[in-house]
Amino acid sequence: MSQPPDPTAVPTAVDDCFRHDDRVLTHEEAVALILARVPAVAGTERVPVEAAVGRVLAEDIHAPRDVPLTDTSAVDGWAFAHADYAASNRLPVSRRIMAGRAAPDALATGTAARIFTGAAMPEGADTVAMQEDCRAEETADGLVVVVPPGLRPGANRRRAGEDLVAGALVARAGTGLRPQDLAAIGSLGLAEISVTRRLRVALCSTGDEIVRPGGPIRPGEVYDSNHVLLASLFSRIDADVDDLGILPDDAGSVRAALATAAASHDLVLTSGGTSRGEGDHVADAVDALGHRHLWHLAVKPGRPLSFGQIGDCLFLGLPGNPVAALVGFLLYGQPLLARLSGRAWRPPVRYPLPAAFAIPSRKTGRREFLRGILITRPDGSLAVDKYARDGSGLITGLRAADGLVEIPEQATSVVEGATVAFIPFTEFGLPPRQTATD
Ligand SMILES: Nc1nc2c(c(=O)[nH]1)N[C@H]1C(S)=C(S)[C@@H](COP(=O)(O)OP(=O)(O)OC[C@H]3O[C@@H](n4cnc5c(N)ncnc54)[C@H](O)[C@@H]3O)O[C@H]1N2
Ligand code: MOO
């Protein structure tokens, strides 16, 4: 059993008010502690805008000009001054304006311009009629367009700057860049932006019983599914990941591996070896080399999750049970990684849904995250069921689930039909379930 660390070993940068040596933290306390403790890495780099998805913006971006640059037509049709149309809905066509041409001269009063989607509106025109609604007539004096009544002033016109106004703050430093953010930045004409540097993460599994897939397995051994899980999660995250392999249940080896890893990484992430078994040396190694800021949560699964630091390198120790490893990563690893990469973080959205299950009685005092399966009821409304078996070793339940159902600490039971909080896995950036069923 690990002892609380010597307070004198606390790094000077660490604020002692966050020490929680002698009690189990709640979910909220643990997230708050992680957010308070984790500094953003220093260092930025410039990258092409189209290669920046998932990166964290390191500069504020202002619009250097209006988008769109000028008033443009939103449809193929005819452009005119609404005042002229109000006087007569038969307008001689005086010109033709294609998209991509320089801003045309002012439109002659009392006439219409043939115009196409995206073309700059001529000065004097403020309204566009869709071609499907109009009739073009050849007359002795040339082409005339007959526009139906009822068009409001400004119809089918896109205003200059209606998407982004020159000078506006388009994206703040700390934004996690999505394709639509990059489209906005591209619309400003920027080809490169500054982003925070990629994180350096070391990943390792622990335990003498763990073996890597691809080789033989003997009785008592377990294939290293957590490595597959975590490596896959990191493939979607802006980080360079080093695989440290499997640490044996040997105190000296674990300590040496963690010390070496901490010297060259921003984060060491382990799975297994966090609880109090005799072969569980990870926590002791972190205590000896650095400091644990939290261990033991009033949360199921994930109770023995630990978080700390070795020098400037952060440490997150996920429990070995695969369900606890994933839930721990999503609930605590994600805010940690967000903060470390300088990205703004918000708690995942909880959707209130009726429970399609019941829990007649439960142990209070800990928050529980169940595997939740969305179901559509006969009346078409949504509800959430729970995966039938709660075991923390069941990867099957993680695969069947669409997300997590959060049961609060004080709940003594859950009644079928009661509203529960459902967090879709998509809230954590995971893809939706797409299991082939036939
Ligand atoms: N006496 C107590 N025993 C346990 C406690 C406790 O508080 N007191 N907590 C239980 C809980 S909750 C969990 S979760 C586990 C976590 O234990 P560890 O983090 O120390 O993990 P291990 O003991 O190494 O392994 C637990 C379980 O997970 C399997 N495992 C481990 N690594 C992997 C991997 N890379 N891939 C797949 N599966 C893995 C391992 O074989 C074990 O079955 O402790 C409880 N016990
Ligand atoms: O983290 Mo353990 O059950 O809570 O698997």
The biggest sheet amounts to:
6 strands, mixed
Rg of Cα set: 30 Å
Give the strand order of the largest sheet, numbering strands 1, 2, ... along the chain: 7-4-6-5-9-8
Mean pLDDT value: 93
Count structural domains: 4
The amount of beta strand, in percent, is 25-35%
| List of distinct ligands in this structure | ligand LQZAQKY5, molybdate ion
**CATH superfamily placement of the largest domain:** MoaB/Mog-like domain
Number of helices: 8
CATH class of the largest domain equals Alpha Beta
CATH topology grouping of the largest domain:
Molybdenum Cofactor Biosythetic Enzyme, Chain A
* Global structural class: alpha+beta
Determine the N-to-C terminus distance. Answer: 49 Å
Which CATH architecture of the largest domain is right?
Answer: 3-Layer(aba) Sandwich
Helix content: 10-25%
Can you tell me the overall shape?
elongated
Give the strand tally: 26
Q: Any low-confidence stretches, pLDDT <50, length ≥5?
A: 1-21
Catalytic activity: adenylyl-molybdopterin + molybdate = Mo-molybdopterin + AMP + H(+)
GO molecular function, one term: metal ion binding
Family: Belongs to the MoeA family.
Enzyme class: transferase
